Amino acid sequence: MVQATDSVVLLSGGVGGAKLALGLHRALPPAALTIIANIGDDFRHLGLAISPDIDTLIYTLADLVNPDTGWGRRDETWNFMAELERLGGETWFRLGDRDLASHVERSRRLEAGDALSTITRETCQRLGIGSHIVPASDRRVQTRVVTDAGVLAFQDYFVRQRAQPVVSEVRFAGAAEAVPPATAMAALGDPGLRAILIAPSNPWLSIDPILAIPALRAALEKSTVARVAVSPIVAGQAIKGPTAKIMAELGMPVNQVGIARHYRGLIDGLVLDHADAGEVAAVEALGIRAITTSTVMQTLEDRMTLARFALEFAATLRRP
User: 146 with 168: CB under 8 angstroms?
Assistant: First the structure.
């Protein structure tokens, strides 16, 4: 059981990761959770600085997220997009009227010289979020997807082309030079840290942009606390998004062994769905402890139950 003085770090992307983030946020004491968020999806659009995964995490923890999509704002209106379309503007990436305020204010503050981590922290404070959401870096890291349609910027691949091109490689421009915010490194080095969790986000598109930053990967490799990933695959299928498609296109087995091999050396334990109980032995043959539970999160109770389960599993892996 996590004590009041314990802290937890979660590496997370957007929609899928935000579900586990919410479970942890509700299950842990105030301010005990630090979420290191993917920024590889960030881009400039219509002159605005868009941070999709950060915003999804913020909206989810602030209980503002659209429950039907898992992204964007609840009770959103679309007057801006309708008018933009009437004027012949680009509408392939949809920005709702309420959501637009986040991008306008972020853009203004970035242009004024504020760091993304500062803007994110103060936004969380204004919205009453006690957990800490920290971008993986204040410098730009841009995911580039090498496909049969060329090298595509992430949002071009994922949104404009609906993840249809065949992927042969994923690159992270700027990652080698990126430096994590001090708050991220402090969370990973906290003497009270009890677990580092990896959310069931797409390992290649959402988690790898974080791990591509040298200081963050090194911190994970050297950590003396339990490191646990929750698999995004259930019975050979992705819970959400193109994870299974990318694994197949990269020549990897679309199963728990494929996920375990990808994270080998970075995790001590992997949480699988009950449907994949037959793969426990194969994962553990790689030197990674495996355990099964229900990993499909449809309700708030599901999110909290999985969060507690992952933390309890991590406690059994705690190193001396």
Answer: yes
Kindly report the pTM of this predicted structure: 0.96
Task: Judge whether residue 1 has pLDDT over 70.
Answer: no
Q: How many domains does the chain have?
A: 1
Check which CATH number belongs to the domain holding 57 and give it.
3.40.50.10680
What lies within 8 Å, CB to CB, of 20 at 6+ separation is: 10, 12, 197, 199, 200, 230, 297, 303, 306, 307, 310
Asked, for residue 1, whether it belongs to a domain, the answer is no
Residues 6+ apart with CB under 8 A from 287: 264
| Distance from C-alpha of 14 to C-alpha of 52, rounded to nearest angstrom | 7
Q: How confident is the model at residue 3 (pLDDT cuts 50, 70, 90)?
A: very low
Length of the chain counted residue by residue: 320
Long-range (24+ apart) CB contacts under 8 A made by 270-274 are 270/228, 270/229, 270/230, 270/231, 271/228, 271/229, 271/230, 271/231, 271/295, 271/306, 271/309, 271/310, 271/313, 272/231, 273/231, 273/234, 273/235
Cross-strand pairs, 271: 230, 291
Position 320 pLDDT exceeds 60:
no
Q: What is the DSSP letter of 250?
A: T
Could you list the residue range(s) of the whole structural domain that residue 280 is in? 7-317
